[in-house]
């Protein structure tokens, strides 16, 4: 388990209106007291995040979520996946006391119960819900290690909890909107549409870029490394470095393989870390582009391709 003293120190910072970066089982979060408007504004400033893009509220248990949002039957069914990598968008309770900037005034709240023991301990010790987006500068690659967070926020006043455990899933949580008549997946993640449909015993919709943008963070360009990307690459072009999957053959000095055995969960867990590595390698070695092998567009591959399409979008 993480150094308890570090978590206690971090919890004091949250209580005092500061910003803490903490590990979760998905990606690192950049958190503040969700009741404290000024504290949450610091997150927007540090990330360079547009103020119309609301934050996910992290709570320790369902009971704490019930104080902030209105649960419906579907929400109770899906809460079986908590703690875990699922975020539900639900109507905000009138007396939630959440800072307006956390929800961007939408009237709904994106909420989740993280499973990571450090995230759990931090919320419990802080005694408040923690609003936290992913701990990266707006539009950039998400962080799956404290080194990524440090390199993103060198000049910011942020307390970073160094966790020895790496991110279990590697990708941000699945987001499902349950505030509308038909449950709609706003962002793919480790929890697949099939798993959700199984629990709800009905079909869900998938929000696409062309459908009405419900999640302000769904804009197409996102997660971009500094080096350009080319996706679905069958071969390497001159000046490129390869990111492989399974038995693909984009082989050059420094190239990597997300999962040589073709395991999508393993590939997801490695995705951001490998993109960070290839990005740094490309900068240092004057490589012009990262070529990425095709990833099957099924199950967790849906989430991987979603991130890659946004990362490659110019
Ligand atoms: O795994 C995760 O979800 C991580 C960890 C730290 O929990 N967090 C994360 O936060 O990925 P962020 O801010 O990078 O992405 C949250 C997404 C954004 O696209 C935002 O627009 C959307 O959730 N969102 C937040 N509140 C919303 C709401 N009320 N309705 C619709 N979308 C919302
Ligand atoms: Mg993010």
How confident overall, as mean pLDDT? 94
Beta-strand percentage?
15-25%
Number of helices, counting only DSSP H or I runs of 4 residues or more: 10
Q: What is the radius of gyration? A: 19 Å
Series of H and E elements: HEEHEHHEHEHEHEEEHEEEEHEH
Q: Could you say which small molecules are bound to this protein?
A: threonylcarbamoyladenylate, magnesium ion
Given helix and strand content, the structural type is alpha/beta
Strand order of the largest sheet: 7-1-2-6-3-5-4-8-9-10
The major pleated sheet works out as:
10 strands, mixed
Distance between the termini: 42 Å
Helix content: 25-40%
What ranges have pLDDT less than 50 throughout 5 or more consecutive residues?
none
Morphology: globular
Number of strands: 14
Give me some keywords for this one:
314 residues; alpha/beta; four-stranded parallel beta sheet; 10 helices; 16% strand; binds threonylcarbamoyladenylate
What does this structure look like?
This protein is of the alpha/beta class and 314 residues long. Helices cover 31% and strands 16% of the residues. It is built from 10 helices and 14 strands. The strands form 2 sheets. The protein has a 10-stranded mixed sheet with strand order 7-1-2-6-3-5-4-8-9-10, sandwiched between helices. It has a 4-stranded parallel sheet with strand order 11-14-12-13, with helices on one face. Strand 9 (184-187), helix 8 (193-200) and strand 10 (205-206) form a beta-alpha-beta unit. Helix 9 runs parallel beside helix 10. The radius of gyration is 19 Å and the shape is globular. The N and C termini lie far apart (42 Å). The mean pLDDT is 94. Threonylcarbamoyladenylate is lined by residues 24, 26-27, 29, 53-56, 87, 89, 103, 106, 108-110, 132-134, 172-173, 175, 186, 214-218.
